[in-house]
Amino acid sequence: MEKMDMARRYLDDALKIAAGAGLVISAAYIISRIKEKQETEARLSRMERILEKLSEEKSKE
């Protein structure tokens, strides 16, 4: 009986560690996707400003 309780305790600890690792990996993935999206939006914004400047210069000609 004592071995069964000990094995269950080890299994519980292993599951907690695995769940914690999964949570960390999931959070890191979500954060990286959010950061990537923000970088893409910043690039698009810069491109829009460049296009606006070019169109203004072209209209002045």
**Helix and strand succession?**
H
The poorly predicted ranges are: none
Task: Compute the CA-based radius of gyration.
Answer: 26 Å
Report the biggest beta sheet as strand number plus sense, adding barrel if it closes. none
Q: What is the residue-averaged pLDDT?
A: 93
Gross morphology is rod-shaped
The fraction of residues in strands falls at under 5%
Enumerate how many helices there are, as a single number.
1
- As a percent range, the share of helical residues equals over 70%
Structural class: mainly alpha
Task: Compute the number of strand runs.
Answer: 0
How far is it from the N-terminal to the C-terminal residue, by CA? 90 Å
Features:
61 residues; mainly alpha; 1 helix; 97% helix; 0% strand
